[in-house]
Structures are given as structure tokens and as C-alpha cells.
Specification:
By secondary structure, this protein is mainly β. Helices cover 0% and strands 13% of the residues. The chain is built from no helices and two strands. A hairpin with a 5-residue loop joins strand 1 and strand 2.
């Protein structure tokens, strides 16, 4: 699945860096959310 610039992100869930659950839909309409993906960050690759 790909997302185009300006398109609404699909709902997803993941673990934060503090191992807490994060679900995008829980923030819908409450506040702005910035998604930052950093592939291979801190892996030495």
C-alpha cells in the first residue's frame, strides 16, 4: 500500500520507543500528528 502526499494516512498501531501502544485513530480530531519514518536509523547500515 502506498500513500500519496496530502492523502490521509491509514489507521495503524505500533510500539513507541518506550514500548507503549500507539494507535493513530486515537488521535483523530484531537491534535496534529507528524509521522516521521527514518529507515535504518542507528543501525550502522
Amino acid at each position: 500500500m502506498s500513500v500519496q502526499v496530502g492523502q490521509q494516512a491509514p489507521d495503524f498501531s505500533l510500539k513507541t520507543n518506550k514500548m507503549k501502544d500507539f494507535k493513530l485513530s486515537e488521535y483523530q480530531g484531537k491534535q496534529n500528528v507528524v509521522l516521521l519514518f527514518v529507515p535504518l536509523a542507528f543501525t550502522g547500515g
